[in-house]
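Exam prep: given the inputs below (a chain plus flavin-adenine dinucleotide), describe the expected output before reading on.
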Amino acid sequence: MKDVKLNVEQIDADVLCIGGGPAGLCAAIRASEKGASVVIADKSNTLRSGDAGMGNDHFMCHIPDVQGELPGFYNKIGKMSQAVSKIFWENAYDLVKRWDSWGIPMKYEGKYEFAGHSMPGLPKFMLHFSGQNTKVKLTKKAKKSGVNIINRVMILDLIHDNGAVTGAIGFDVRESKLLVFKAKAVILATGKCMRLFPQNTGSLFNTSTSPINTGDGRAMAYRAGCELSDMELNDRWSGPKYFARNGRGSWMGEYKDPHGVQIGSGKEATSHFYPGLYEDYQKSGRGPVYMDLAGISNKDYEDMKYWLIHEANTPILDFFKGEGVDPRKHPFEFMTYGLFTPGGINYNEKCETPLSGLYAAGDEFMSFYIAGAAVFGSIAGESAAAFAVKARSFDEERTQAPVVKAKELLEAVLNRTDGATWQEANSAIQQVMADYCGLTRSETLLTAGLEHLRRLKKKVSQVLMAQNPHELMRCVEVLNLFDIGEITFTAAKERKESRQHHHRVDFPFTNPILNEQRLVIKNENGQPVPEWRMRA
Ligand SMILES: Cc1cc2nc3c(=O)[nH]c(=O)nc-3n(C[C@H](O)[C@H](O)[C@H](O)COP(=O)(O)OP(=O)(O)OC[C@H]3O[C@@H](n4cnc5c(N)ncnc54)[C@H](O)[C@@H]3O)c2cc1C
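Solution:
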C-alpha cells in the first residue's frame, strides 16, 4: 500500500501568471514594469513550452509606414467591429517594436516584410518575423525584469471566494509538493485545449499544436464561476498528410488534384483559409490533393524553408532530407487535421473576467494568435498590476478548505494501486468526443454521447491512478478534459444550426439570426448551463 503525502509550500506575489507562453510572459513583463512583484507558474519550461515553444513566423499587425493609416486599413479588412479587435489593431505595432528591442528579429533583411497568409484582394497583415527563439528571448526579458519563473508546476485550481480570486493551487510535476500561490491578482494564460479530440496520426501527443495545453485555464475558470464562449465552434487545421505540423502560410507551391489541375495556392494560403479542402476533395472522389513545388524559383524555395524552420516545421524538412526526397520533384499529399477547441474564457478589452482579480489573455480565447497573446498579455499585466495596488490582502482562512480538498484529490490519485491510467482515460474521452460530438452531430447522438461522457467522468474521477508526479499532471489534465468535454456537448446540443465546423445533420442550415450572438456556458451548481448573448 502506498502512502504518499504532499509537502505544502507557499509562494506570495502581487500577480500570479498561470502559464508562461507569449501571453503569460508579456503579462509578467508588463506587470513587473508597473511595479508589481510577479511570479509565473508553468507546467513545462517557459524556454520552449506551449504553442510558441519551437517558433512562430508571422505576427498579425498594422504598421502605418508600410500599410498606410489605420482607419483606411481596417475598413478594408473589416476587423474593427468589436472593442477587443480595435484595441488589438491599435496596440500590435507597439508590441512589434518592443519585441524587436528585446532581441526578437521582427524585420527580415532589414525591413518589415508582410508576406504569407494573404487573402486575395485584401491588404497583407501578417508580418514575417524570425521567431524560432521567441520564447527564449521573452523568458530572458522576463527574468531581467525581475519576474520569478517557477517551471514544472501545474496549476490545478483557483482560490476564490465571493466572486474574488486570491491565488491558485498547484503541484510540482517532478516532486511530491503542493504549492499554494497567494496573489492579489491572477492571470490565466494556459493556451488552447488539445487532446480532447483525436488527431490525424492517432497518437495522443503528435498534435499540430502543443499537446500539453489541455484547456486547464478554461476548466479552472469555469469551476470558479467564469463563463466560457463558443465552445461548440471547434476548429480544424490542415497540412502535410500524417504530419502534425502545417506551416500553412509558408508553402510556395500550388495545390493540385491527381490530374495536375490547380485547385489552390500556397501563396494565397488556401490551406489556412479552407482547411477542409482536402477532406472535401477526398469525399467527392477527386482526391487526394497534392502540394506541388515544381517550378518554384531557388529563392522562393530557400525563403520557404527559412520560414518553415521559424514556424517549428523543422521535422518536415528533416524528414525530406532523411529520406532523400526532394519535395520540388515529389508532390506530397495534404490532409485536413482533427478538431480542437479555440473557444474559451470570456475576457474583455482590459482582459478582465467577471471574477474580481482574475484576468485572462492569449489563447484562453483564441484570437489574433501570437500577436493577440502579446497584445492582450501586456494589457492583462497592466490591468492586474493596477488591481494589485488596491486589492485587499490575502485572507489565510479562505485558503484552507480548497487546499485540503486539492491535497486529498491529488494524494488519492497518487496512492491508488489499482485503477485506470491517464492514457486509458484520455483515449476514452477522445473516442466519445469523436463519435458523438465530432464532425457529425445530432440531437440523438449528442444526448447519447453526453450520457456516456458523464458516466465515464464519474468513473474516471474514482479510478484514475498515477505512479509519480509527472503522471499526476497527466491525470489532472484528463480530469480537466472531462469538464471541457461536458461543456462542449452542452453547447453543441444548444446550437441548433450548422456553422463553421459544427455540423448538425438535424439542423443543416446556418441561422442568420444567430450571426451576432454567442453561446456562453455558465456553471450553475456544478452543471453547465447554456445562455445566448449578443456579441460585444
Ligand atoms: C507550430 C506552431 C506554429 C505557430 N505559428 C504561428 C505564427 O507563425 N503566427 C501566429 O500568430 N501564431 C502561430 N501559432 C499560434 C501561437 O503560437 C499561439 O497563438 C500562441 O503561442 C498563444 O500564446 P499563449 O501564451 O496564449 O499560449 P501558449 O504559447 O500555448 O502557452 C501556454 C503556456 O501555458 C502553460 N500551461 C498550460 N496549462 C498549464 C497549467 N495548468 N499550469 C501551468 N502552466 C500551464 C504551457 O506550458 C505553456 O507554456 C503557432 C502555433 C504552433 C503550434
